[in-house]
Amino acid sequence: MIALPLFFGLTLAAAAAGLSRRGRWTAPAGVAQSLALLALAGIVLTHPGQQWLLWPLAGWGMLRLTFTALGGFLLVVTAVVFLAVYLFSPGYLARYQDRYDQRPLGVTLALLLGSIALILLAGDVVTFLIAWELMSVLSYITVVFDHEAPENPRAGYAMLGASELGFLMVLGAWLPLVLAAHSIGFSAIAAVGSHRLTDGVRWAVFGLSFLGFGVKAGLFPAMSWLPRAHPAAPAHASAVLSGAILNLGLYGIILTNVLLLPPPSPAAGVIVLGIGVATTFLGILYAATDTHIKRLLAHSSIENMGLVTIGIGAAMTFDGVGLPVLGLLAWIAALYQILNHSVYKTLLFLGSGAIDQATGELNMDHLGGLGRRLKWTGVFLLAGTMAIAAIPPFNGFVSEWLLLQSLLRSVAMANPALETAFALAGVTVALAAGLAATAFIRFYGMTFLGRQRSDHAARAQDVTATQRTALGLLAGLALLLGIAPTYVATGLARVAASLAQSHDVAAFIPTFFQPGTLPPALASAFYPLGAAVGQHVLPDPGVVFMHPSTRLHAGVVFAMSPTYLAIAIGIALALAFALAKVLGHGRVRRGRPWLGGARTVDAGLTYTATGVARPIWVVFRAVLSPGQTVDREEVVAEHFRVSVQREDRSRYVVDRLIVDPSIRAARALAHLFARMHRGSVNAYVGYAFVALLAAMLLVRIT
Amino acid sequence: MNLTDAPRGGAPDAPPGGQPLHMVTTSTATLPDTVRRLMAEDRPLFIGLVVEHTGSRPPHLQYVWMGPEARWLLVDVAVDGTVVPSITPTVFAADWAEREAEDLFGVHFDGHPQLGDFILHDEDWAENLAPMKTRPEPPAHGGGRDPYEPPRIVQAPGRFVMPVGPVFSAAQESVRFLLETVGEEIMHAHVRLFYKYRGLEKLMERQAPDRAVLVAERVNGTQAFAHGLAFAQAVEALGAAVVPPRARTIRTALAEWERLRSHVATLAGIVESTGLSIPANLLAAVEEHLLQLSARYLGHRYLFGLVALGGLSRDPGDDALQALARAGVEAGGSVQAVCHRLTFDNSFLDRLEAVGMLPPARAATLGLVGPVGRASGAPADVRCWHPYAAYGKHLVTPVIESEGDGYARFRVFRREVAASVDLIQRCAAALPAGPVQTPVPVVPGVGLAAVEAPSGALAYWVRAGSAGQIDRCHIMAPAFLNWHGLADAVRDFAFQDFPIIVSTLGLSVADADR
Amino acid sequence: MPWFWEGLKRDVHTLPPGVARLPSGVTPGRPTTTAVTAEDPFDADICPVGALARRDAGVAVDFDHCIHCMRCQPPKAPVQWQNDYRWAEAAAPPLPPRFQRSIHVRIVDAGDCGGCLSELRQLLGPVYSLHRYGIYVSPTPRDADVLLVVGPVTVGMRVALEETYAAMPDPKRVVAVGVCALNGGLFADSFAVSGGASRVVPVDVTVPGCPPPPLAILHALELVTGARRETREVAES
């Protein structure tokens, strides 16, 4: 039980190391800190329920740390993210060396990791909220680190403001819980909460906590800060913000609405599902059309949080209507999505750092052809691109497939309204997968392939060996999570079991190779296909996801083995390669590209990222930019157009439709109150009279 | 040789030398004012700019306009030095004509914002070559300057240029389009012509007219008869030759026969571009049928070798013309049947209606001619304005639409098919007897004549020398004027509309490239 | 769908393969070497391009230069015209036998007046329907086997022609279509013209004519593939 003090001790040490000259000890200390957290997470996972009592708060119980499965899982994810970030950062930060003192950033990151761990370990309301505030302020510091760019401080304020608003909502949500349980301990609240509270209060708790934590996870409608703040931070901090901190918002939602006080009706699950759908759709739509790499990644983070939220919503609904096995499936899908997103998004944000480091440019319209210069970065980011675009054999495919399957299983609910909602969510997930593929193929193609659109690319240097290790580690993880998903899912099922009402993981990951565990009809259908290949090598439960129908005439509802798929892809690639070798007789003819008869074509004559995204922009113009482009023409000699300036005045859809009108309404209201303040004495008397009358009426009625 | 002598305009019906030809002589300094005044009085149709630049003498310019009632308007400028004030701010249609003069003759037009690389592409030719200046040796090519880059008009994030051509995937003429865009819709189009520049005007110099007429036919092989006829009429006007009535009537019939085939080909192209392959093939079959009839009755599928100075090289005979008239009725019927069905086809109409807009005011500014101009409400039709051949006897009513979209152009082509069929019948029914050719003396001086080619007003300006040779021939082709309008027609339309819009303009590259 | 029925209702426009008798007008015919007696008053200068020459036994025709001006057609001159279409001549062996069933062609307009291109369009059109012979116009030179060049190769199109040829895979053949592509034709003397495709790319098959009719171009493609498609004797109806 030394891991806990060891980790927090190393946190302080790492913070101190951050103060070393030029921050040279930051990274090694940080790596040690991350490894300690990994060890601690292992202990948390193996000792669920263990408590560390800190000190008492008079009359309200003890401040304490509690080991939970969900917390442990997120600790693992966080530790992996920080490990890669610390490995990557020394090479990356060199570009800031002349402009900024890096020591504050080192201290901040070390303390940030500590605060995240504290949130995930907190066993009571007060510890949690203190750690939460600490985390909010520290992440604000990372966003405004590069404060010379004028938009960054503003982005930081937006994030801090949104964060504090969310914090207030969470306070509002938790206050009735603490009062009802008369304790700050999560376990006490969970034990008593649902009996003593009316449905109205329970709905209020659900709404406030969901909105409040949703702000931090970047969920609709409180996400407009995210695409501004995440790109503003240095790339490795962006990776932390996206890969580790967004998860905390989801943690808060699950903690409140599943562990502490489940909402009174399955309808809450559908609301969560709906919010997830809106978040996913808007996130991927903007990711598919933005040309700035880090903003694209930030929008994609919104999309991924939306996908997880869809999973959570589905799980809550399944649990609410009494389908615990499907609930477990949805929980696994949601957790898997969290894990995957943290891995590939950290990889991609660090990759954006590598691109920034090499070229100083993040607008894809000016990039291109980097693959020839940044060979390793190119290879690892290809893995990240395929993972996030849900292309097998990488991990994104598995979680999105599981999510889709759990949504499709809504037929089991036999409730047309719910089924429709789930079908819509399924369509959104499918649409998001398609758009994500276009968005990230565009990202990779426009950045690494084609012609160099500016001379930044010509001087580009690839990353250092340590940075390569960080990227390689994450790319390897993305592959591993994609080719051995049954074992990952079995592990995740243990975490999910603490949230769901079932732990029957065998319902969709049957012990495939054991004779007798499958219905004979199924076995005879699958084994001849080669599904039993590898049974003596691969450990239980096998490498196949399969869900036998619960109805009569047992059939299979879904079956899939990403492992076998990966093997098939490998064989097909090898075959294609061999075939090309044999048929091509080794002759390779290299010629100039065909340019329609022209001999040379400069990069200005090739598609830009904006151009590639244009068809999507045209289709979704109503969402993205309705009538907000303005062309100004300049004409000389009466008839000759010599320039057309196009200005895009579009605002983020959430700002346009929700934030701006709210601000306008608030201003108008303030104006109204201001008028009241300047009113005549007679009017004041009138107000008082009306108020009194209203109060009396109210009392009378109730 | 008097440089400022007035050309003899070509309406052979009118008494020789009696054409209403209005010639204004002006100096370099007063040119813009003169043009502005003339344009304010009248709205004539700009046809072209003739430049002569002989040896060491300063260049001599003649701007040519055409008006109704057989009127020509010529502004003659004797240039001192090599700089001329540009008239494009007043007459936008003269834009390309001035660019051509700058590129080929080295005349600089002060106030024209887009001079430079136009006909002689930077990659292929030396700077300041001015090959059309008369000099003893033919100018050599070679130079290899930097590749041309279009001026950057569009300033928008993510802007790029979509290059198309010069080599296309099917049997298309060579031309390059550089489309400025941010994706999907064309924000600005640069048309780069003259990959096929053959230097034909230079080639015709020092040739005898009866050989040069063969070159004229091959300026644009698909409208060979119109080109041959315009050239022959210019030489005939010069020699004040009176073409026999039979030849005039047959010339009219054959000009309409060529228009019929050319319009059917254009209609087939429009339908093809909209992706309706069955009606496109039905129309293409009619086109090939017409080509076969040409070979059977007239000896050549594209009517090469038929026009001769002073008439026709041979008489096809009454029977042949009556057979053509009957075949024309049949072919016209097939075309109208297909087109009639097309007007009920929504997928066809959707692709043409309100696509490729050239509103009447803009078309007038651009100086568009022929069916394209008439689809935008411009009434110009040389057959009515300057009745040549037998058009004075067999009157034509111009086909005019006013919407200026792709569908209006489709309707103009369609209605002109019917009008041509009708006119061929009228000619075949009233063939005068007599010879088909008269000798034409080649007199030194300048001859100018215009015809309504299938794609619009086509004029030849021919100066003959004392030895019976051509000293200068300038071809003022309709495609050269109409390509100028393409950039406007495609602006703000999507990429997938681009081939459709190009096909509705029915433009030939060879016609413009010469 | 209505167009489908509309198309079926019309007659078959396509020329049957291996036609025994060509409908008149499909080929415009061409002058041929003619025997004339020594007394025959004949002036070879009647030909504006010098394609006719007076020999002892008659009039020799250099059809590679004939531009179809028809000034030597009877009754103006005693030159016989014949109505065949096998005008192409091959200077190189056909493509290997595996190309007999299907080839892809690429067309480059190197300064054509529009006549030859129009004839190529007719060849692709419904009457000649080139596709039925397994001959396709390739959208990219990367999988083209045959390059059809029309026009005298202007200075501006030189590079484009070279690039197209270079972009094609081996084995490949070049067909010069029309007098202009053979030797520059009427435009050979222009300063802006290279004077024939063979000045820029190696030409394997030539089709004279101004323009050569579609069947003559098809004959050239027969020579390229080595497959005989229009085998039977042809006579004017």
Spatial order of the strands forming the largest sheet of chain A: 1-2
- Assess the beta-strand content of chain B as a share of residues: 15-25%
Q: N- to C-terminal separation of chain B?
A: 27 Å
Low-confidence parts of chain B, pLDDT < 50 over ≥5 residues?
Answer: 10-18
Strand order of the largest sheet of chain B: 1-14-15-16
Number of strands of chain B: 16
The CATH superfamily of the largest domain in chain B turns out to be Cytochrome-c3 Hydrogenase, chain B
Note the main sheet of chain A. 2 strands, antiparallel
The radius of gyration of chain B is: 22 Å
β-strand number of chain A: 6
Form type of chain A: globular
Biggest interface between protein chains, with counts per chain?
B-C, 70 and 69 residues
Describe the structure.
The complex is a heterotrimer of chains A (702), B (514) and C (237). Chain A is mainly alpha-helical and 702 residues long. Among the domains of chain A are: 266-508, no CATH class; 653-701. Helix content of chain A is 66%, strand content 6%. In chain A, strand 1 and strand 2 form a beta hairpin. Chain A is globular and about 95 Å long. Chain B has 2 domains: 8-150, NADH:ubiquinone oxidoreductase Nqo5 subunit (Beta Polymerase, domain 2); 200-513, Cytochrome-c3 Hydrogenase, chain B, CATH 1.10.645.10. Chain B has 17 helices and 16 strands. In chain B, strands 1-14-15-16 form a 4-stranded mixed beta sheet. A 4-stranded mixed beta sheet of chain B has the order 2-5-4-3. With 237 residues, chain C is α/β, with parallel strands linked by helices. Chain C has helices at residues 2-9, 115-124, 155-167, 179-183, 214-225; strands at residues 21-22, 30-32, 34-35, 52-54, 58-61, 80-82, 89-90, 103-109, 135-137, 146-150, 173-177, 205-207, 235-236. A 6-stranded mixed beta sheet of chain C has the order 7-12-11-10-8-9, sandwiched between helices. In chain C, strands 3-5-4 form a 3-stranded antiparallel beta sheet, with no helix packed on it. A two-stranded parallel sheet of chain C has the order 1-13. The relative contact order of chain C is 0.20. Chains in contact: A-B, A-C, B-C. Chains B and C meet through helix 3, helix 4, helix 7 and helix 17 of B and helix 1, strand 8, helix 2 and helix 3 of C.
